[in-house]
Amino acid sequence: MSDSGSLGRFFHVAWLIMRKDVTVEMRSREILYTTAFFALSCVLVFAFSFVREGRAIEDAASGILWIAIAFSGTLALGRTFERERTNETLHALLMAPADRPAVYLGKLLGVVALMAVVEAVLVPLVGLLFQAPIGTHPMYLAMLLATGTIGFAAVGTLFAAMLIRARSRDVLLPVLLYPITIPVIIAGVRGTATLFSGGDATMARAWLGMLVFFDVVFITLALWTFEAVMTE
Known about the structure:
Layout: H1 3-28, H2 30-50, E1 51-52, E2 55-56, H3 60-87, H4 89-95, H5 100-129, H6 138-162, H7 169-196, H8 201-229
Antiparallel strand pairs: 1-2
Helix pairs in contact: 1-5, 2-3, 2-5, 3-5, 3-6, 3-7, 5-6, 5-8, 6-7, 6-8, 7-8
């Protein structure tokens, strides 16, 4: 088979797995509702703490936005792979005649799609409660959120798959995930804070470039190691 044919089959498998995850979630909406409710509750709690007389503490909006994304993303990762463990779906996918890195990429795209839906609700709420100018640089904000979410989910998908049979997976996942994704969260917070403060978009582009670098590194390493760590 030619290289182009192999590459096309690789992305086709990833697309089918992502479509399967999205279809199952759209039918039940269990993880979506749980994740969205958790993220919104997190923002509301912080709003009561950091907003005084209608004014929020400086840079609070960007930090709280990314905290809510990280916490809700962790919950989504755990619940998504809990479903796979219960139904033995991941085991069946690994037994299928498909490249295991394609399985990883499909799972990653499914998680990113779920987190994107939650963020579509989360960002306007943060803008409303913290008076954050989310419409000043919408394209840069969208790119920061997209690259930050991909970097976070790239590591989280790998670890969630590794821990699928661990008894303490709910505890181990954040313990392993947060130390490695701290650079992603910091870059996302600083880039978003630059946009919300009305600063020069040049700094936001610098943070965006850093997030793209993290994405490339994390996804490359995950694709390289996924087959090894999932081999029984």
